[in-house]
Amino acid sequence: MLAHYRWRLDPTTLRELVDDPEDLRELRQGLTDKLASALDNRSRARLLSLRAVASRVLGDLDDALDDGRMALTYAEATGELRRSALAQARLAHVLRWRGEFAEADRMFAEANSAELPDRLRAALHEHAARSCYDQGRLMEACHHFERALDLRGEGDAELLARVRVGLDAIAARAGASGFGPYPRSWDEVLERERAPVPARDGDEGLWGYADAVGDLTVPARYAEAQPFREGLAWVRGPQSDRWSLIDLTGETVVEPTYLAVRPFSDGLAWVVRDDSGWLAVDTAGAVAVPPGFAEVRPFRRGVAAVRREGWGAVDRSGQIVVPTRYHGFHTTLADGRYVDGFTDEGLAVVDLAGRKGVVDRTGQVLVAPAHPVLLIHPVAFLATNGVGQWGALDRRGGSLIDPVFRNPDEVVAEIEGLLSDATPML
């Protein structure tokens, strides 16, 4: 009902307007009634975040904020990327209306994963543009509107109409007060400090770290220096074959200990101390995952692909969550991008004797290894049959679209047709 509720966009404030608030209050009461019997995290996340939408449009911003924050807590507990992104977006929209722009912009950015459906990503950019408009960041607003159109412009007449309203508002404001500051970088929006980068001293031939203007912030005293990740970097001195760990100031966190090292990811780094194989250490150098792996991949959202007798996965405590029985991980997204291990959603394509399947971060087999090629789509899995024709499976591994198409792009278009009424309700 909310998805089909008609409202208008104010051409000056770029906020939603309703002609009959009483109808919307009735809808909000219906959501409240449903919440009384909703027990699982998925249902409560959805109902609370939708009630936040209704309260926001009605101007009850305190109630909307409380619902939005609680909805995000429930959504994150599900571990589902799309559900968490929707909850973040709805909460960010409330924060924008409250004038809490820094947190709103950060949430819009964090929610906008490349693994989400284009329709949702376009909506995130559209609402991020409106937040920038409120702040007088008109160039940045234009960039977000442009990105929304790149993702969905040709296939979404309603989005195109709303963007036109937004651009007209920008033109009117820019004529009076200019376009405002230059667009911020991703790191600035996410409030990340720019780490110094490896820089070589030409006279000594040693490595240090330089800031954005090229000044050395960590002296050039290392034979090798890896980039900073999560505020830490691995370095090797000229008189040692062992790597040590330093912080952003150049202070040593871990003394020279390891023969081989990988950058930090998700708070852990893979290292080799001796011939016992790869182990993982935390940011203080304490062992988090015991040694014993021949090959490893970075941790992503709590899991990492590893190889012992075969490929599997471990969690942050070293517990095997995917049995090491597979011949490889070959996670490729429907748009052609390769993922090293698990996606943000916690899915991975595994190979068993040349046949592809899908497992999640808990080790559950969603699609048995039976397909020559398999790609991860935001709402489905694209797969080929024995003669190279493409179809799609749903997220439980059941048949969604018969394998009758010549290429994956045709299957994606078919999925878009099935999702024609699935406009994200923000």
From TrEMBL:
Protein name: WG repeat-containing protein
Residue runs in coiled coils: none
Organism whose genome encodes this protein: Micromonospora craniellae
Top-level taxon in the UniProt lineage: Bacteria
Stored Pfam families: WG_beta_rep (PF14903)
